[in-house]
Design goal:
The chain has 71 residues and is mostly loops. Helices cover 13% and strands 0% of the residues.
């Protein structure tokens, strides 16, 4: 049996994140977060910069992460 290569490289533990059933749910609410907004998707590497922006602290320097908060 030949493994299907992941489009993002190794380390996916047998799961393919591009499949909707493998994606997680992220709920964020509170000050600085627009209400009743649904974004189409969020990458795991964007969680830390998003939380940093909400807390008003510098975002992590590891690119290409970006904040997903729409205020």
């Amino acid at each position: 049996m030949q493994a299907n290569p992941s489009p993002i490289g190794g380390g996916v533990h047998g799961f393919y994140p591009q499949l909707a059933k493998m994606q997680a749910i992220c709920f964020i609410g509170g000050a600085g977060v627009a209400q009743n907004v649904q974004i189409p998707g969020m990458r795991q590497i964007d969680v830390a910069p998003t939380i940093a922006r909400l807390l008003g602290i510098p975002r992590p320097e590891t690119p290409p992460a970006t904040s997903s908060v729409k205020s």
